[in-house]
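We recall that each integer encodes one residue's backbone shape. We quote one record:
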Amino acid sequence: MKELTLQEIQKYSLNVLLHIHDFCVAHHIDYSLAYGTLIGAVRHKGFIPWDDDIDIIMTRENFERFLKEYQSSKDFMLVSPDDRKSYLAFARVCDLKNTKIITRIPWSKYDTGVWVDIFPMDSISDNEEEHRKRWKKLYKFWEITSIARGAKANAMNHDNWEKSNSLIWLKKFIFLNGCLVRPSVRLFINWIKSSKYANSSHCAQLACCDEWGFYEKKDFEEYTTLEFEGHQLMVIKEYDKVLRLLYGDYMQLPPENKRKPKQSHFIKFFLKEKD
């Protein structure tokens, strides 16, 4: 199989994003570009030049509507956190037609191509310190489930990838060949959706705990559009406020040694062979 270049990964990822956008517009579901994708829209009017993935966010209400109303097809597939074959607490819409991925950290039982991540925003405590304490506990639990996913990996090296087989076998032994991953993810999802904070005025993205956030819900109620690779796509109106809370001066380029794809050390992307 032919390995994709960064530009090809971006092209096929954009196809998935435009597909999601068209569906959301047709079904009146609000979403927003998020994280590096949102920075790319503001700073570059498209991808950050070295970025290899696309992220969007939805309020929990819109997220649940999307999961309920979206229908997978022969070209695109939704992997929902409610799917027993998924090992994630958020959703992905994946390309099935053109691309294929091989990963050292399996995230589902499905064989898919490039994807767009869809993260829900969940209610949290209005007390920032209380939220911080809860987030730290969630982070530890999320980290364990992330490591446990490695037990689902194929113990054989892929092509010339330098990877210790013994490490994979150790994970398989510790985490019972990954059989506890799905139950732990289900428990994690129930935890982040706690009804205790349903009436609060703050929210955060908790399904993937690699970022800290303490946002006002009202900042996710109004939407506008920004240009992204020649297309007008949805973003929250308060995108500057939210990005500054998360990244500080996000318009400043990172050091050159930080300008590299995030996923390339554990995922390889390929052009799918035609039948």
